[in-house]
Amino acid sequence: MSQFNIEEEIEEITGGEYERTPVPKKALKGWKSFLGMYAGEHAAGTEFMIGPLFLTAGVSAFDLIVGLLIGNFLAVLSWRYLTASIAIKHRLTLYYHFEKICGKKLVTAYNLANGILFCFLAGAMITVSATAVGIPFEIEMPKLTDTMPNSMTWIIIVLSIGAVISIIAGSGYDTVSKAANWMSPVIVTAFIACGIVALGQLNVSNFTDFWNIWGEGSAPFPGQTKFTFWHVVIWSWFCNAAMHIGMSDLSVFRFAKSSSSGWTTAAGMYVGHYMAWIAAALLYAVYLKTPEAQAFLTNGEAPPVAPGPLAYNAIGIFGIIAVVLAGWTTANPTMYRAGLAFQAIIPKASTFWVTILAGSIATIAGIFPAFAMKLLNFVALYGFILAPIGAIIVFDHFFAKKAGIIPFYAEKAHQSFNLSVLLAWLISFMIFYGISVQFDIFLSFVTLPAWLSCGIFYLVFSKFLQKKSYAYS
């Protein structure tokens, strides 16, 4: 059987998601498909957590409003000129693309780590949805310092939400995209409504009143990191580092007709990572004025961040619905990506069932509120670990031939383990994670240096370790 027929058979088994073949022309999608997905994914569950967490980090008005403008623009540029450009050239998933460079054995370890980290992120979004579903049951909401579930009711709610989200994600990209297109207008409307109501509750009548909500900033809440202007810029740029400079969204943009679809990420960044973060922060600002929140602060504790009650207090039942849907629209594509990671390890397995596996892991993670409550730090770590892998893909794509090395070397040399890749990632990780720990530097600050060094190390090691008997193509 020819390689083409083998891969064609795998496509039939896996449900036609093109995990190990380039996406054919007939399956390409226009920019509207990506617009809805990115608007839905990034005006979603994480936003209900991240907006309030900025307040717990003591940001100033200038740091938040201007820092987010710049950081989100840098993220859009990364998607457009790196991720989308490479995706439409090769039209491969991240996992298969990376396998061609590093070999089957090495990509298996990466896929496992990548899939698990995605599951944890999806689990945090299930936690977010659970804070809304739990309101009618009057359950105790998790605190910022909580790691364990606080009731059996909480566990049952999380398991129920996780089951529904897993089934939607397991149905494939088309279903994920359609779900996002349907849910995102509802969620965006809810964020706008929450922001407007919160402004009224805060007695904001002009821009000065709005600015003074954050003012010159404050000391961070107990147990939280103080955020400055550069924290906001760098964190907002790299909170999705795994997706853009880490190349995870090759798996998404491989369906794009042109790299211009990369600009649609601006809908996610400026509707979600700008408007929605600020609107969610306003909800938390309202809560901070309540006697309950003041009691926490008086006792030296950080008031809890529970998106469900915050939205419910602003816009009632619509707030509960919006938070539930918001958790879904982040968890759905995240589980889809995790499923692709696991499916790359077992390529003949059904996409549906590997996504159900990913959903099961995410649901178990969602039971434990720590992933949601420490989202700023978790996202920074997750991006730092995964982003440098994207540097290897970027440098292999743009600089391999200029550096005199062979692109897609593992495939051409029939290698199952490319030592250059492992050395590049491991050395970069050790150097910059060590710097972060030794000098107490926020991890997002060393993500770009680690990314660049990983790409450069890859070229250098490849120059010495590659055998030159394999032709370029």
TrEMBL record:
InterPro entries for the chain: CodB
Keywords: Membrane, Transmembrane, Transmembrane helix
Residue spans crossing the bilayer: 64-88, 109-132, 152-170, 182-202, 227-246, 267-287, 310-331, 352-372, 378-395, 416-435, 441-461
Gene3D superfamilies reported in the protein's UniProt record: Hydantoin permease
Keyword Transmembrane helix (UniProt): yes
Name under which the protein is recorded: Purine-cytosine permease
